[in-house]
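Chapter summary example.
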Amino acid sequence: MSVQSPEYIAFSPRRVAAIVLRHWYVIRSSWPRILDLMYWPMVQMLTWGFIQLYVAQHSNFFAQAAGTFVAAVIMWDILFRGQLGFSISFLEELYSRNMGNLMMSPLRPLEFVVALMIMSMIRLAIGTIPVTLLAIVFFGFNLWAMGLALALFILNLFLTGWAVGLVVAGLLLRNGLGAENLAWGIMFLLMPLTCIYYPVEVLPEWLRLFAWMLPPTYVFEGMRALLIDKVFRPDLMLQAFAINVVLFGASVVVFLQLLRSARRHGTLLQGGD
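The structure predicted for these 273 residues follows.
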C-alpha cells in the first residue's frame, strides 16, 4: 500500500481500537495496575473526610496544637520516603536488567536487603534534612527539639517502610514491572488508617482495630501526645516496635519466598510485565 493512498492517510478507527485493545489487555492481566486506578480517589476522600470531621468536632484544635500538622507532614514523608527510597534502589536494578547478575554473584539476598536499607536512609537524609530546616524558617517549628522521642519515631517509621518495601520488592521480582505502581503508591493505601492528621478516635469504631494493627498509628499518636499534651508515651513506642519486629520478620520471609518463586519461574531475567 502506498503511503499516499487514501487507505493509508485516512483516519482509521481500527488502528485506534488496536492500540486501545493492546493497553486493555495489559491492564486486565495486571492486578497491581487495576488497584492503582482505584486506590487514590478512595484514599483522598477518606483522609480529608476524617480531617474535616475532627476539625469540626474540635474548633480550638489549631490553637492547641500549633505545629502538629507540620510535624505530621514531615513524619509522613519519613515513612513514605523510607519505603520509596528502598523501592527505588531496587527498581534501578530492574531497570538496568542487573538483577540476574546480582543473584548469580556471591552477594546473599539478605546482604542485598541491608544495602537497600542503607540507601533508603541516605536518600531520606538528602531529602528530609533540608525540609526540617525550612520548617524552622517558615513556621518556627523545630522537629529536632523532640530529641530522643524523634529517634524512636523515625526508627519505627523506617522499620514499617522497609517491611513494605521488602514485600513490594518480592512482588516486583515475581510479577515484573507490571507491579511497579505498588512501589510508588502502596503506602498511600495505609494513609487513612495510620491517622497522620487526626487521632484514632475519629475513625469509626469498627476501623479502630485495624488502625491499631499498624505501627505508624502508634507513632503519630505518640507525636500528638508529645506536641499537644507535652507527654512522651514510651508504651506506644514499645507497642509499635513489637508490631514492627513481627511485620519485618514476616516481610523477610515473604521476600525470600517470592525470590525463590522468581528463580523457579525465570522472572529474574525479565524486565517487562
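To summarize the output: The chain has a mean pLDDT of 81.
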